[in-house]
Give the backbone structure.
Amino acid sequence: MCATCGCDTDGNVTMHEPGHHHDHNDHHSHDHQKKVVAVEKDVLNENNLLAERNRGYFEAKNILALNLVSSPGSGKTSLLERTLKDMKGELEFAVIEGDQQTTNDADRIHATGTKVVQINTGKGCHLDAHMVLHAVQGMKPKNDSVLFIENVGNLVCPAMFDLGEKERVVIISVTEGDDKPLKYPDMFYSSTLCIINKTDLLPYVPFDIEKVKANAKKVNHKLEIIELSCTNGEGLQIWYDWLKSKVLAPETV
Amino acid sequence: MHELSIVMSIIDIAQQQAKSADAETIDEIEIDIGCLSTVQMEAFDFAWEQAVKETILDNAIKKINRIKGKARCLDCDASFPLENIYDACPKCGQHLIDIVEGKELRVKSLIVS
């Protein structure tokens, strides 16, 4: 399944080994008739199974896993840095960083004293459940913690890949276009929370915040929206309260 | 370019299914791809051409069913075709909609021999 890291799945989900062996002579005993095989299988089935496996692990350990998605430069890492510093002592955190190359982001998170693993996807444009499985196995996040999974900066591809997260958080900054939810609807459709970042820059940019909110709601009427600025701290408390509410919320079945 | 991952998954599924059906070759593969799924067909076809080389799907006919988007309005209960995820209900103008069809991405069937 894993197109990006190339390693095989570990047998708990789907086997690649054939269920039987037939020797070469057998081939000639049946008459090469055409046969229709009804498959009816979701193409992303393998990823979805691994995502559910991750989800079960997170639930068992009461870990709140959040998948952070956005285009590059929206301020995902800055938001994380600020959150980790401001909420130190209040909640236990761990971070998985996804980027094509470098450990720059992981270094920034490490500097805050938080447990972090960097996944480099090479040419890959998204994280998948398999990569997260490996990362989690290595880092062993604590029980009752919050796990931030910062996806590769890309507003298209990560939309299709469930990682096993509880919530998907899409981040958009006011320096981007306010029609972005319409241009990249899949990400907004699959997210549960939208953070509008860099609101301190609103006086300087032609970004209509009401319009972006309306556009996001057109795509996904269930989407929650929080406006904030990591620079001047405006709105951060709402985000922190949202986080705490999700940690404390009893598990819904 | 997540289309390459998608094609790789399709190849995996096809290989598994062909093995369990005791088949040597796949003559045809039928795939449902909804118009509202995140698949760009040009990228998909390009990835397909490269990825199936020297696999069991190398010479298989690829039959793609594009399934059109369909939604139901949660407000007025109207059912209607949906071209874009952000389209409103044509009857009441609300965006409280539930996508019923068009997000499919599945291997439907194989013809093997």
In short: The longest helix of chain B spans residues 3-20. The first strand of chain B starts at residue 26 and ends at 34. The radius of gyration of chain B is 17 Å.
